[in-house]
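[step 3/7] inverse_fold.run input=structure_tokens len=184
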């Protein structure tokens, strides 16, 4: 499969590549409480322990990425997905998307999970899939894509599990990532 782009989905009202992880726990919790006031957003449905669990998962992804030879230049990732995923537009009141050619990014600064970090690393019972609880390099992820395809293609409605897209954790400064956005 020919994969060319990473996409970032965001709400026009706030802008792209904003991260709760860069805030203090208290400030991130306050932002999360504001999200809860807007019943229409995906973020409003997150649990009370979301910020804490997010930090745990990012720490886990960071450590695993280092073990794979990754070279993160940021302590917290910016989130993107491999190719388009229309479902992610439903997360926002005023959805927007940016795309960046994968060739414009340093592969040593990007880790991947087959699905969002939260369900991929959940403790939920059920079928265990070979790609759960793992962080991948691009070469490893390309092998999984060849084997399974893109989740947004075979599971766009979520009927077959929590995998709806391949998440790319971009471990580079926000400003640098924004400079690589493809203008259309």
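[step 3/7] decode complete -> sequence:
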């Amino acid at each position: 499969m020919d994969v060319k782009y990473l996409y970032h989905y965001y709400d026009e009202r706030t802008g792209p590549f904003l991260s709760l992880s860069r805030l203090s726990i208290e400030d991130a919790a306050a932002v999360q409480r504001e999200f809860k006031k807007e019943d229409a957003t995906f973020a409003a449905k997150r649990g009370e322990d979301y910020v804490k669990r997010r930090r745990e998962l990012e720490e886990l992804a960071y450590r695993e990425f280092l073990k794979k030879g990754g070279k993160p230049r940021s302590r917290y990732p910016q989130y993107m997905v491999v190719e388009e995923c229309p479902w992610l537009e439903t997360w926002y009141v005023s959805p927007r998307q940016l795309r960046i050619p994968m060739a414009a990014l340093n592969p040593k600064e990007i880790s991947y999970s087959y699905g969002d970090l939260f369900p991929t690393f959940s403790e939920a019972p059920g079928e265990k899939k070979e790609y759960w609880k793992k962080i991948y390099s691009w070469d490893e992820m390309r092998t999984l894509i060849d084997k399974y395809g893109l989740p947004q293609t075979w599971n766009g409605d979520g009927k077959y599990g929590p995998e709806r897209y391949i998440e790319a954790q971009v471990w580079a400064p926000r400003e640098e990532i924004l400079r690589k956005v493809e203008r259309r």
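[step 4/7] annotate
The two ends are 23 Å apart (CA to CA).
Helices lie at 25-37, 50-67, 117-120, 138-148, 151-154, 174-179.
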